[in-house]
Amino acid sequence: GAGVSQSPRYKVAKRGQDVALRCDPISGHVSLFWYQQALGQGPEFLTYFQNEAQLDKSGLPSDRFFAERPEGSVSTLKIQRTQQEDSAVYLCASTPETGIGYGYTFGSGTRLTVV
Amino acid sequence: AQTVTQSQPEMSVQEAETVTLSCTYDTSESDYYLFWYKQPPSRQMILVIRQEAYKQQNATENRFSVNFQKAAKSFSLKISDSQLGDAAMYFCASTRLTQGGSEKLVFGKGTKLTVNP
Fold first, then answer.
1. CB contact under 8 A, A56 and B47
2. What is the pLDDT of residues A85-111, one digit of tens each?
3. Which residues of B touch A98 (CB under 8 A)?
4. Which residues, in sequence order, are CB contacts of A63 under 8 Å at separation 6+?
C-alpha cells in the first residue's frame, strides 16, 4: 500500500482482556518497528523486526506483550491480560532497508484504552 | 542511557513569524542521525527534517532548518514564515543501534506548537 496502515484505530478493552493490534507496512519494507506512546510523552521503542525475524524485543514492558511478523509483511502486537497502564497509542513504522538514514514511515497508530 | 530533552513543553508563534524549538541529546554513538517529527491530532508522525551527525552543514527543508551544534549536543528547529498548518506536537529524536543491528529512535517528550492567526 501507499502508507503504513494500522487497525483498529481505537480499541477499548476491559482490564484482563487480550487485545491484538495490526500493522500493515509499506509493501517491500524490510524493517518494522513498534512504539508505545503514553499520553503526553514521546514514543518509546518496543520491538524490531527484520523481515520475519524479531531481532530486538528489549523494549517490551512485560511478558504480557508479544509481537509477530510471520511472513515478513503484516505484524501483530498482542497484549495479554491488559492492565490500565497499557493504555497508550501504539505506533507502527517501517523502513525499506535495515538502516534508518531516510527515517521511518509511521502509521496513524492504535489508541488503546483499558477500563 | 541515551536521552533526548525538549525543554519547552509549549510554544506559540504568530502566523508568518519565526519560532525556534530546542532539543538537546546525549549519545554514546559515534555515528547517528537526528530528526524532527511533527505529530498533528491525526497521530501520524510526519518527518520534518533529518540531520546526519557527521555532516557539518545544517539541514534545511523549505521553511524548516536546524541549528546543529555537535559538541554541545544541541539540535534546534527553526520554522520560518509560520503557517496555521504548522500547529502540532513536535518531537526531536536521535538514533540508537538496536540489538538487531538496525537503528531505533529515541524521542524527546515533545513541544506543542500553537500558531496564532
1. no
2. 999 999 999 988 766 666 789 999 999
3. 101-102
4. none
CA dihedral for A39, B36, B9, B31, sign (positive or negative)? positive
Chain A environment of B109 (Cβ under 8 Å): 40-42
Q: Which amino acid is at B117?
A: P
Q: And the C-alpha cell for A4?
A: 503504513
Report which secondary-structure segment, H or E, holds B106. strand B103-107
For residue B52, the chain A residues in CB contact (below 8 A) are: 101
For residue A111, what is its C-alpha cell?
489508541
Residue B83 to chain A, least CA–CA distance (Å):
23
Give the DSSP H/E element, type plus range, for residue B61: strand B60-61
**pLDDT by position in tens, chain B (length 117):** 679 999 999 999 999 999 999 999 998 887 889 999 999 988 889 999 999 988 889 999 999 999 999 999 999 999 999 999 999 999 999 987 777 667 889 999 999 999 999
Q: Supply φ then ψ for residue B9, to 5 degrees.
A: -65, -35
Contacts of B30 (CB under 8 A, 6+ apart): none
How far is the C-alpha of A11 from the C-alpha of A82, rounded, in Å?
Answer: 12
